[in-house]
Specification:
Elements (H helix, E strand, L loop, with lengths): L1 E3 L5 E3 L11 H11 L5 E3 H9 L7 H15 L12 E4 L2 E4 L5 E2 H17 L3 H12 L14 H27 L3 H14 L4 H13 L3 H19 L5 H12 L18
Parallel strand pairs: 1-6
Antiparallel strand pairs: 1-2, 3-5, 4-5
Helix pairs in contact: 1-3, 4-5, 5-6, 6-8, 7-8, 8-9, 8-10, 9-10
């Protein structure tokens, strides 16, 4: 089976046929298992998720029925089958990804490998591999099951994982000298995230290195105003220093200092 959570929940069998559950509660159940693989989820946790804190008196029995139906969708036997991915483990159930593929796991593996390439000095290879990994995202993660407390938190974690990875991809491309070709996309991204400093920093660097320092300074003014209006905060020291560097025209080309090494968010 190939499981997907980097977009709407998806499930593809070994013959390449889509077979994701249609019922919302089955989707919620599967999404909880996929975001916590190989770790026990208690019956209480699952009931809370499925009924949002207001379970019926028959919730335990209903959960058992949902588990059974999910096993059928996966084409597997009961809890004692060696081939079953959903096993009874007191105080609840554990879902194993052994023998299956997951788009999140593939993304994390490719992202980690890109980090190793960067550490070895292969920035071109790291950029190409990270760009390939980002294509695994089909939209906002868990897009059709962002309706329970735990999955909402998990979706936000994955949103941040995507953004930090996307920003890392931009950082690599800037250090490869792809300044002018990044400007358009960065302007769009800055419009979507008017208070996200790293996006505006990269846009300022790209503009400066593309010979457009006045525009870079206007970008600084834009995020300074956004931060002030939304939270009453001033830009970070890093962003203020970048503004001063652009004002002084001290360098012909600005480089990007790496922010953090590539790693998955636990």
């Amino acid at each position: 089976m190939k499981f997907g959570i980097l977009g709407q929940l998806s499930l593809v069998d070994s013959d390449g046929r889509p077979c994701a559950p249609g019922a919302l509660k089955l989707k919620i159940l599967l999404a909880n298992f996929l975001t916590r693989p190989n770790r026990t989820m208690s019956t209480h946790q699952l009931i809370e998720e499925l009924w949002d804190g207001f379970p019926p008196r028959t919730a335990t029995t209903a959960l058992q029925v949902y588990i059974s139906n999910l096993r059928k969708i996966l084409g597997e036997g009961g809890s004692r089958s060696e081939q079953s991915s959903i096993l009874n483990r007191p105080p609840g159930y554990v879902f194993s990804l052994a023998g299956h593929d997951s788009d999140l796991r593939q993304f994390e593996q490719e992202r980690d490998e890109a980090g190793r390439l960067e550490a070895q000095g292969d920035v071109e290879g790291a950029s190409e591999l990270l760009r390939q990994a980002l294509k695994l995202w089909r939209g906002r993660a868990l897009a059709d099951v962002r309706c329970t407390p735990r999955l909402t938190v998990e979706a936000r974690r994955l949103d941040e994982l995507y953004m930090t990875s996307y920003e890392k991809s931009i950082e690599l491309d800037l250090n490869l000298g792809r300044h002018a070709e990044l400007v358009g996309g960065l302007y769009t991204l800055a419009g979507e995230y008017p208070s996200r400093e790293r996006v505006h920093e990269y846009l300022m660097v790209a503009l400066y290195n593309a010979g457009r320092p006045s525009e870079a300074l206007r970008v600084y003014s834009s995020i300074r105003n956004s931060l002030s209006e939304q939270s009453g905060l001033a830009p970070s020291h890093r962003l203020r220093s970048l503004q001063q560097t652009i004002l002084s025209r001290s360098f012909d080309v600005l480089s990007i200092r790496p922010q953090t090494p590539m790693r998955s968010i636990a």
